[in-house]
Amino acid sequence: MIQDLCSRSQEVRFGQSSPASMLVISACLLAGFSSAFSSSVMAQTGTPSPANPSSDDIKQRERDLDAVRAQQKSAVELQERLKADIAAIGQNRAKLNQQLIDVAASVRDIETKIAEAEARLLPLDAREQEIRASLDSRRSEIVEVLAALQRAGRRTPPALLVRPENALQSLRTAILLGSVVPEMRVRAEKLVADLDELVGLRKSIAAERDRMAANRDSLKDDQTRLATLVDERQRQQSGIEKNMAVEAARAVELSHQVDTLQGLIAKMEQDLKSAAKAAATASRQGVPGALNGKPNLGALKDPGRLSPAIAFASAKGLLALPVNGTKIRDFGGSDGAGGAEKGISLAARPGAQVTTPCDGWVVYAGPFRSYGQLLILNAGGGYHVLIAGMERISVNIGQFVLTGEPVATMGSTSRVASILAANASQPVLYIEFRKDGTPIDPAPWWVVNKGQKVRG
User: Which pTM does this prediction carry?
Assistant: First the structure.
């Protein structure tokens, strides 16, 4: 009905404007607003198309089908490349480790880019809605301006929010040609300014969303690649450690016999064969060599190493956080239960990749009390690193892991009881450093400049 009225309004001649034609223009403007918002809602809710689709609908479906086929072909090609890469790696542990570290770093870099894009979109989206609301609230005023344009140009102006670029061009042309009467000029120029900003915002938002979509595609490919590499690492590890499943079950059984983290560490390193072996190896390792009193960062370039490249005590200011996220609780702050925090908590993205901040031996990997999934690394020199709150851990007890190596993934919600009590909506990772069994402030170890962080 409104579309029919709009088409008829094109027949209105100069000097023939009437209350009826003003109503038609108002209806056209309303159609523009309604169409913009309804199309947005349909895109988000997936409203089904009519029973008799138009030729445009059919063409769009064909394009969508072609896109799905292209994605399927790309996935098959990726799997073939991954198989070839795994075959080329063979039993070369160093080569496998390096690929794990490199791909995990790529995953985390892309996660960061996506998070930054989302942050940039927030004010853009908010400003777009603000301008739309402003235009909507000035509808009667805008109808007057558009009516003047119709009388001058003998045609219906484009719908503002559906085609703001066309409406902007029409207004600019009218102002330049003097088609807008002086008393309307100020309001027309204000409308031009708003439409100009709206057009710019829509272009910026579209560009950000395109970049984000490309990054999400890249992230999906890298995550697939990383999962394949992790599976190969664990397959090779199972060939070395024949009783991994038995040891894992035994570890969970022993964890039920203790109530504290320190008790768990002691229990594992005393009573569990693989953890005891890892602890013994850690205690036998000497302090890694240093150059001019500084840690030898060159040792990190050996992906085949089986002991820490840098003494943990010497790694201050060099370690990267295990996951991309925002710190929500700090060491020494209130834990919400009358005590003090013994570590830090980071709010992360759902499904985020977790990597090791340092070299170390896995002495526990599994569920524990209110911590959810818990990973404990013996970093040597009496230091232990505890990481909790993941959905899935991908390493085994007794395994030696390198700085930056993928060890776990986050879930969709928090899994640490103390964080759940705080009603955190995001998944949260808890990190704690201990020296000789006592929690210590991890702040001195975290890298300040991202360019200085260490990687295996």
Answer: 0.73
